[in-house]
Specification:
This protein has 229 residues and is mostly beta strands. Among the domains are: 28 residues, no CATH class; 131 residues, no CATH class.
Length: 229
């Protein structure tokens, strides 16, 4: 069927006939478009992978919380409270000190020899009081020792108290220091201060130091030391 094109068309005039479109190029009508669909051609080869990074998509909804895991190791029960300590205010305890010497042993006679102390933990605080008897007394010989209520923690010549020696005849009082000595930490040596040199010296108290010990004379000792626990 012949197509009835327009007469005397101008260049680039367009004419549509059914599903086809023509354009006048000055010499003839050229087919430029058709709506007819031909058969599908074969699929071409796959292109190379793109390196372009697409935009990040929206964040999805949060999932539900999972179940709680088992509890960790549970601490054991608290142990019982220990007993209260014994440190506190307590009455002094009496004890019976012994009086000896490194020579002939002295005899107290009808005099008195007493001791008292208190334990503050491992610390011992105490005193010794001795009064020579008016009858049956013997001063013995050598230097004097007095026993302690417990063995101490000490070394030779370590001071641990004060000493007062009283000569009741002329009414004279002498002062000294109680020390540990001779490797024996269960007794006291009483030393008196002397003035025979430029510095204060010490001499062990004995039957004739600092005077000839006689009836009614006194020795008073106050001590503090660490006891063996």
């Amino acid at each position: 069927m012949a197509i009835n094109f327009p007469n005397t068309p101008a260049v680039d005039d367009i004419y549509t006939y059914l599903t086809q479109t023509y354009i006048w190029n000055g010499f003839y009508w050229r087919l430029v478009r058709t709506s007819a669909v031909g058969p599908t051609g074969p699929t071409g080869p796959a292109g190379a992978d793109s390196t372009a990074v697409g935009s990040t998509g929206p964040t999805g909804d949060l999932g539900s919380t999972g179940p709680t895991g088992p509890a960790g190791i549970i601490p054991g029960p608290t142990g019982p409270t220990g007993p209260a300590g014994s440190f506190g205010f307590t009455a002094w305890t009496t004890y019976s000190p012994t009086w000896t010497s490194n020579g002939t042993q002295p005899v107290l006679g009808n005099g008195t020899l007493t001791g008292r102390y208190v334990s503050l933990g491992a610390t011992i605080v105490g005193e010794i009081r001795m009064v020579a008897g008016s009858s049956g007394f013997s001063r013995g010989s050598g230097k004097y020792y007095f026993s302690l209520p417990s063995t101490g923690v000490a070394e030779n010549f370590q001071p641990m108290g004060q000493v007062v020696i009283r000569d009741e005849g002329p009414g004279l009082t002498y002062f000294g220091t109680a020390i540990f000595n001779e490797g024996n930490d269960a007794r006291i040596e009483a030393w008196v201060h002397g003035q025979s040199a430029a510095y204060d010296e010490g001499f062990p108290v004995g039957s004739d130091v600092p005077f000839l010990f006689s009836a009614s004379d006194r020795i008073l000792i106050h001590f503090t030391y660490e006891s063996v626990v």
